[in-house]
Structure formats: C-alpha cells, structure tokens
C-alpha cells in the first residue's frame, strides 16, 4: 500500500526514504541502505554502543556518588542522540559529555512542521512554499529546525562522499488507534500492564502490533532501535536500581495510585513523556 500525500510534507526536493511515495524508487533506495541497518552491521558497530553506554553509566554513577536527583528521561535521550550521531553521521554529537541540549538536532520541530503541513494534502506544497515568509516566531523556529536537520544530513553526505556527486482513494491507519482498539485488546487496552503478555492469548496477538510499521515500508531503523533498547536497558537495570525522586510519588506507587494509568504524554508522531522523569539511583 503506497504512502499518501501526507508524507510529501516530510520530503524536500529529493524525497528521503521515509517520505518517498514512489514504491519502485523506495525499494531501490531501501536496498541501498539496508546493510547499514542490518544486525550484522550493528554488531560491527557495537563498540560505539558500548562506548556511549559507558558514558551513560559514568553519568549515573556520578549522580549516585553525589546523592543527586536526575532526569532519567533526559540522559536516555542524550544517549540515543549520541549513538545516532556515531552510526549515521560518523561522529557523536557529544551531548552526554557536554550536557548541552542545544547540540540535539531539532528533529521534534521538523516532525511537528511536517505533521501540520501534511495534514492538509491539497495545500502541502503551497504551505511549504509560503509559510517560511510568515513573520511568526513559532513558525520560523519550526522551519529553522527543518533547515538544521537538512544541513546536518548534507554535511554528513559531503564528508562521506568527499566531493563526489550523486485518481485514487487513500487509506490511512493510525498506529495509536490500531493499538488501542478494544475489539482486539479488550477494555483494558489503555491500562499499562506489561504482564498482559504473559497470557498466551495476548501473546498470540503480538503479530498485530505495528509500532515500527509493516511490510516494505516498515521502519528501516527497527533493528538499530531494538538493539539499543535491549542492550542499554538490560545493562542499566543489571547495574543500577532506580526509584522515583519524589517521596509523595513513591507513596502513591506503594498505594497503587498510578496502577494501570498512563502519565501525560506529548506527541509529534511518536509519543513521549511530557515533562522530566526525576529519579534517584543506587548500585545493585
């Protein structure tokens, strides 16, 4: 099933592999890129993951030594950015070591802009052409974010190539709605309960999940993402124990106040916890 006009908002003059709607061209481009996202390649690059995990561990240990509260969400985010820098752009953004959030590429702004302009397919091209001239600080920030992402990709390509040149009805499936369909998942679909997967009847439905998409348009970075999730979290949970920093929140957890509840989220296509995740840690 081809992608709809919504994805025109994610591309530029030369559509990227995510926003590209031409299926034949996408298939060729994906084949060219597939090795760089394969498990074999990830294993070859494992030393970069290990190096960044060590930075993360040292950061957590420093908080433990100083008996400090820290934002676990932020340091996990910084780890992801640095690893992506190593794997995709041949150099880390050094966000973990500098603790400088300005080094984080403005991907959120880019995604938000695309989601807004892509929601009006008939006007997407016109919006992309004229919105940059609207004297609104918020819009200018979004377009500046998109330009920064494009420039970052261009610099990386230039460095790697060393100067070489190189009438239908659309059907849209919303991942969130698909994953929260009570007909499939029951009335408890909106309750956070990881142990549900212990039930064989629920486990059998795992094939219905599409958090990375499905088929030929499945996210090409799935292997990179899952490898990092398994490796980082298993390492951190083996070596550290994390508790909520707020005594009131810890009491709420003990009393079942948050059981089955999902915290307030923020989404620009992928949901994220709104606000920090303040914790304390100790060595196991």
UniProtKB/TrEMBL annotation:
<dbReference type="InterPro" id="IPR036396">
    <property type="entry name" value="Cyt_P450_sf"/>
</dbReference>
<dbReference type="GO" id="GO:0020037">
    <property type="term" value="F:heme binding"/>
</dbReference>
<keyword id="KW-0408">Iron</keyword>
<keyword id="KW-0479">Metal-binding</keyword>
<dbReference type="InterPro" id="IPR001128">
    <property type="entry name" value="Cyt_P450"/>
</dbReference>
<dbReference type="InterPro" id="IPR017972">
    <property type="entry name" value="Cyt_P450_CS"/>
</dbReference>
<dbReference type="GO" id="GO:0004497">
    <property type="term" value="F:monooxygenase activity"/>
</dbReference>
<dbReference type="GO" id="GO:0005506">
    <property type="term" value="F:iron ion binding"/>
</dbReference>
<dbReference type="Pfam" id="PF00067">
    <property type="entry name" value="p450"/>
</dbReference>
<protein>
    <submittedName>
        <fullName>Benzoate 4-monooxygenase cytochrome P450</fullName>
    </submittedName>
</protein>
<dbReference type="GO" id="GO:0016705">
    <property type="term" value="F:oxidoreductase activity, acting on paired donors, with incorporation or reduction of molecular oxygen"/>
</dbReference>
<comment type="similarity">
    <text>Belongs to the cytochrome P450 family.</text>
</comment>
<keyword id="KW-0560">Oxidoreductase</keyword>
<keyword id="KW-0503">Monooxygenase</keyword>
<dbReference type="InterPro" id="IPR050121">
    <property type="entry name" value="Cytochrome_P450_monoxygenase"/>
</dbReference>
<keyword id="KW-0349">Heme</keyword>
